[in-house]
Specification:
- The complex is a heterotrimer of chains A (about 300), B (about 240) and C (about 210).
- Chain A is an alpha/beta fold.
- Chain A has twelve helices and ten strands.
- Chain A has two domains: about 160 residues, D-Maltodextrin-Binding Protein, domain 2; about 100 residues, Osmoprotection protein (prox), domain 2 (D-Maltodextrin-Binding Protein, domain 2, 3-Layer(aba) Sandwich).
- A five-stranded mixed beta sheet of chain A has the order 7-6-8-5-9. A three-stranded antiparallel beta sheet of chain A has the order 3-10-4.
- Chain B has a single domain, classed as MetI-like (MetI-like fold, Orthogonal Bundle).
- Chain B is about 75% helix and about 0% strand.
- Chain B contains eleven helices and no strands.
- Chain C has about 210 residues and is mostly helical.
- Chain C contains nine helices and no strands.
- The chains are: A alpha/beta (about 300), B mainly alpha (about 240), C mainly alpha (about 210).
- The interface between B and C is large, with 40 and 45 residues.
């Protein structure tokens, strides 16, 4: 091979590398700065469960229909993962839940919170939320964490509410996401509020397939499932009642980066929040998880049904 | 950095079912089972292919193809498909081990058939000339000569399995990957980094053990480090190719 | 099957993302591994530290490297660039030894003749040693390419969109179709890389006509 060929190929490689770096550098800027800043599309994030992704698509769809350019980034992970992304501008908007979000911020800031009703929780949330985000008006639609057991387990130990677990929990295994090890709305809260101390905690996932299958399989005796999960009625599972409101009000609420906020954004999302109901959530999640439809298609059809597209 | 060291030296992290010793033991267990199972499949197969020369085309392509399968995807698929069939804790363990075994097969298979193929034809000839049967040639000449490549394949497979067993924590398996996945869920950087350091250390120890084993098992005659030509070797030895 | 046909555009998008997340590091890694491999051969004492040292990088679990990258490099958390840097590190770990061994495989007599002809070290490297080392390096690149394609899919666990996202999507929804689609796409992508590298190596070495 001539010197020229080798030089040419090395130069070509360098050029390809350089161009790709430049290209992705540009695209990253566009994605990272988000809607508020330099005109790139607003990025709506979704966590690692279907409902969050559906809500992200609904928000993005409504915003696009209202003339605000928006795209989605789904399956990002748990709150501990995506909140820093919200902070550094990788994402601009997130569909959240009032109760757990309030507790998360309160734990970070050291504030004490006590409300369990929707309005009270929301007000406290606004107080504890850090300055880089803004909490928009909440929706009536609600989806709570739960401690769920099989019908058989409920019958065996006469379980109706979480409090009933206190005498028997030491013999039982709880399954949930890794975050439950440290969150107040997790193992710590169960112990503090109900005196429920499980014998074993197995990390499964956040109300997802691993938790569900582990519950059905007997790997775990109780698991963290979300109250809108269509499998709870389908598989005759029992979501234990929460009389002391460990899992306080969990209304769907848009969380937006301060820099990405605009009045039009709030107006558009308000319409969505007003139209959304808990029943809607159950149906939407069923269509995605059970009927295997796409979150985006399901979101689009909901927007159409509610005249928001 | 300091936080990571603090996490690693924190006594609480070394106790209990969630502690470092238990997780390390689990990780080694998963690795060992997968390597054993893969060897049971791949070594006889590779020896046969190398010795008879048949099925080589299939072996080469199978090795290449299996290597290209993404471990995460295979893991999820296996858990989903087999989780319904096998119940309880085994519902996660069996699919995960299956995937780890499948991933370990290519390097071991390649090592086995390449090792046997590359045996010096002269050695084979001499064995035949001495009256050895095919099987005797295989076991007394070809396998010992192929040992360096076979064990190199095993080491490569071990590294693969240790790395993939880490990801298996995402389907709620145990092992050192738990620190990574749990740390991720809680954004606990010291835990994640600590877990990463531990896995890297484990991989290193496994690899070095493999190297030591290789030195013990491989016949000195193969290393070129004995014999008259070795004693009068040139001062500046050429750079090792392995 | 129907799902795959309906979602070809999504799969295509993920495949393109995956291709540059796996491919760019191959090029960057090679460009870094060449000087490193050369240094490894400079002096007998350098080989082990350089080759083994870079090889050690491969033992770092991929998920950990993706997550910890923002801490080291200061990129944003969801930036796919974290993946590119991590993959480049893995590629360098694999290729440094390959480059060193490839250069070692060049016959001493050829190197000696080149020097005798008056070629300086750098020219000798560029015009004689590297071209002759291409077959070995290309073989190493093929292994690195397959390895990269598989490892990049792990980044789905932190939400970086690529073919691995099909795995997490399918798993969270208890839906096998996206997972199967993702596996097939990854295998095809690895095959594509393989073919490109083989063809490129063949173009660079016209004397190996067979």
């Amino acid at each position: 091979m001539s010197t020229r060929t080798l030089r040419a190929s090395l130069t070509a490689l360098l050029a390809v590398a350089g161009l790709t770096l430049a290209a992705c550098g540009n695209s990253n800027d566009a994605l990272n700065s988000g809607g508020g800043d330099s005109g790139g599309p607003l990025i709506v994030g979704g966590a690692n469960f279907s409902e969050s992704n559906i809500l992200a698509e609904i928000y993005a769809g409504a915003l696009n229909a209202a003339g605000i350019d928006a795209t989605t980034k789904e399956n990002i992970g748990s709150r501990e993962t995506y909140l820093p992304a919200l902070k550094d501008g990788s994402i601009d908007l997130f569909p959240e839940y009032t109760g757990v979000l309030r507790d998360y911020f309160a734990a970070k800031s050291g504030d004490t919170v006590s409300a369990t009703d929707s309005v009270g929780v929301f007000n406290e949330l606004k107080q504890v939320a850090p300055s880089y985000v803004r909490v928009l008006p909440f929706s009536a639609a609600e989806d709570k964490d739960s401690v769920t057991v099989t019908q058989a387990t409920a019958d065996k130990y006469s379980l109706k509410s979480i409090a009933d677990l206190a005498p028997v929990a030491s013999k039982l295994t709880l399954g949930g996401p890794p975050e439950w090890k440290t969150r107040q709305t997790g193992l710590a809260g169960l112990k503090k509020l109900y005196g429920v101390d499980f014998g074993k905690f197995t990390v499964t996932d956040a109300g997802g397939p691993i938790t569900l299958n582990a519950l059905l399989d007997g790997r775990i005796d109780a698991g963290n499932l979300f109250t809108t999960n269509p499998q709870i009625p389908a598989k005759h599972l029992v979501a234990l009642e929460d009389p002391k409101s460990l899992f306080a009000a969990q209304n769907v609420v848009p969380l937006v980066r301060q820099d990405a906020y605009s009045a039009q954004l709030q107006e558009t999302l308000n319409k969505v929040s007003k139209a959304l109901t808990t029943e809607d959530l159950v149906n939407l999640v069923k269509r995605v998880d059970v009927d295997k439809e796409d979150p985006k298609d399901v979101a689009d059809s909901w927007l159409q049904d509610n005249n928001l597209s | 950095m300091n936080e990571v060291l603090a996490w690693l030296t924190d006594g609480a992290n070394w106790q209990g079912p969630d502690g470092i010793p238990v997780r390390t033991y689990e990780h080694l267990l998963y690795t060992f089972i997968a390597l054993a199972a893969a060897s049971l499949i791949a070594i006889p197969l590779g020896l046969w292919v190398g010795h008879t020369g048949r099925g080589r085309f299939l072996a080469v392509n199978l090795t290449g193809g299996l290597r290209a399968i993404p471990s995460l995807g295979l893991l999820f698929a296996a858990v989903m498909v087999l989780g319904g069939v096998v119940h309880g804790d085994a519902g996660i363990f069996v699919p995960a081990e299956l995937v780890l075994t499948i991933l370990a097969v290519p390097p071991i298979l390649a090592g086995a058939y390449a090792g046997v193929e590359e045996v010096d034809a002269a050695a084979r000839d001499a064995a035949r000339g001495m009256g050895m049967t095919g099987t005797e040639v295989l076991w007394q000449v070809e396998v010992p000569c192929a040992l360096p490549l076979i064990s190199s394949g095993l080491r490569s497979a071990a590294l693969q399995v240790v790395a993939t067993a880490t990801i298996a924590a995402s389907v709620s398996l145990g092992g050192l990957g738990r620190f990574l996945i749990d740390g991720l869920g809680q954004l606990d950087y010291p835990q994640m980094a600590g877990g990463a350091v531990l896995v890297a250390l484990l991989a290193l120890i496994v690899d070095l053990s493999g190297a030591a084993l290789q030195r013990v098992v491989v016949s000195p005659g193969l290393t070129g480090k004995t014999g008259p030509s070795f004693r009068f070797r040139p001062r500046r030895a050429p750079v090792r190719a392995t | 099957m129907q799902w795959i046909l309906d979602h070809l555009d999504d799969i295509g998008y993920y495949a393109v993302q995956h291709a540059w997340l796996a491919g760019l590091p191959l090029i960057l890694g090679l460009l870094i591994a060449i000087p490193l491999g050369w240094v490894a051969r400079l002096n007998r004492g350098f080989y082990t530290p350089v080759v083994v040292g870079t090889g050690l990088l491969y033992t770092i679990p991929s998920l950990a490297l993706f997550i910890l990258m923002p801490l080291f490099v200061g990129t944003q958390i969801l930036d796919p660039f974290n993946v590119v840097i991590a993959m480049t590190i893995y590629t360098v770990a694999l290729l440094t030894r390959t480059v060193a061994d490839g250069l070692a495989a060049v016959p001493e007599s050829v190197v000696a003749s080149a020097s005798a002809m008056g070629l300086g070290r750098f020219r000798r490297l560029m015009t004689v040693e590297l071209p002759l080392a291409v077959p070995v390096i290309a073989a190493g690149m093929r292994v690195a390419a397959v390895s990269n394609v598989s490892i990049v899919s792990v980044a789905a666990l932190i939400g970086v969109p690529q073919l691995g996202s099909l795995f997490t999507d399918g798993f969270y929804r208890d839906f096998l179709d996206p997972i199967v689609a993702g596996i097939i796409a990854c295998v095809l992508l690895a095959l594509a890389f393989d073919i490109v590298i083989v063809l490129f190596a063949r173009w660079l070495t016209p004397w190996r006509a067979a």
